[in-house]
Design brief:
The chain is mainly α. It has a domain of 44 residues. Helices cover 76% and strands 0% of the residues. The chain contains two helices and no strands. The two termini are 22 Å apart. Belongs to the XseB family.
Length: 68
C-alpha cells in the first residue's frame, strides 16, 4: 500500500507544479500532465482538510481528544 502524502508534501508539490507552469518552458502535453497532477493534489488536500475540520468540530463540541 502506498504511503499517504502529507498536506505539507502536497503543498510543496503544488508549488513546484505552479512554478513549472508559470515559467512557460513546458510543452502543451507536459503542462496538461502537470495540471492534472495538481488537480489530484488539490483533491487530496481538500480531503485531508475536511478530516481535520471534522475532528476540530468534534473537539469543540465535546472538549475531548477524539482520535486526532
Amino acid at each position: 500500500m502506498a504511503k499517504a502524502i502529507t498536506l505539507e508534501e502536497s503543498f510543496g508539490s503544488l508549488e513546484k507544479i505552479i512554478d513549472n507552469l508559470e515559467n512557460g518552458q513546458l510543452s502543451l502535453d507536459e503542462s496538461f500532465k502537470m495540471y492534472n497532477e495538481g488537480i489530484k493534489l488539490i483533491k487530496n488536500c481538500n480531503i485531508q482538510l475536511d478530516k481535520v475540520e471534522k475532528q476540530i468540530i468534534i473537539l469543540d463540541k465535546s472538549g475531548e481528544h477524539d482520535g486526532i
